[in-house]
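Whiteboard transcription, Tuesday session. T.W. wrote the structure tokens on the left side:
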């Protein structure tokens, strides 16, 4: 297991994952969106964490779910990278000047009608993210920094049936403490694990 995930690790991961996305479904039924998978390293403890948010229960879509910062592309966004940056600042108050984007994964389709591009970023070492974050009280219930060596360990990644009411055929689930991570968020984490060489690549038949 990799404890501290470096910029080089993420670059290699992105290169390894370039063909791991979903088959193209360009039929007009999916809205473009992107998310930010933001890593932070503690050099003294030699470990790495990933920023996770829990969405508020009263939201119209994905209410109460564990997620990465992100959302739908708006007209003001020049591209999906800007979408991920804007949403990260809006949801948790971390501006694009505080981290470096290493690259992005291929597109993933969701059962709720989105085609999502995950961006991978790493916090600049001079900033302490815990002191920067101010969750948007309208959208974010809470946030936490989950240890990478737990989120990315295959032994915690389970292939299972989705919750009742979901339009997916199957899903990935990751148990982290009292939190249940599933759907797109879990699948991105499983794909990161594969890109880092920790496991085989996951199947792409969730929907």
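and on the right, the sequence the group agreed on:
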């Amino acid at each position: 297991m990799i404890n501290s995930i470096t910029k080089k690790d993420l670059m290699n991961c992105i290169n390894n994952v370039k063909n791991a996305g979903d088959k193209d479904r360009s039929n007009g039924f999916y809205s473009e969106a992107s998310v930010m998978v933001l890593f932070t390293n503690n050099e003294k403890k030699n470990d790495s964490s990933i920023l996770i948010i829990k969405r508020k229960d009263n939201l119209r879509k994905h209410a109460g779910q564990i997620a990465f910062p992100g959302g739908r592309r708006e007209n003001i966004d020049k591209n999906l990278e800007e979408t991920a940056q804007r949403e990260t600042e809006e949801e948790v108050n971390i501006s694009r000047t505080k981290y470096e984007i290493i690259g992005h994964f291929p597109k993933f389709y969701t059962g709720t009608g989105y085609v999502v591009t995950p961006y991978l970023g790493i916090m600049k070492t001079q900033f302490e993210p815990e002191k920067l974050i101010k969750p948007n009280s309208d959208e974010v219930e809470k946030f936490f920094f989950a240890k990478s060596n737990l989120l990315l360990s295959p032994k915690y990644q389970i292939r299972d049936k989705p919750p009742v009411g979901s339009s997916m055929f199957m899903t990935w689930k990751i148990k982290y403490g009292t939190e249940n991570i599933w759907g797109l968020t879990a699948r991105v984490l499983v794909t990161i694990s594969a890109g880092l060489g920790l496991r085989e690549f996951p199947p792409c038949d969730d929907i």
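Someone added at the bottom: The first strand starts at residue 31 and ends at 42.
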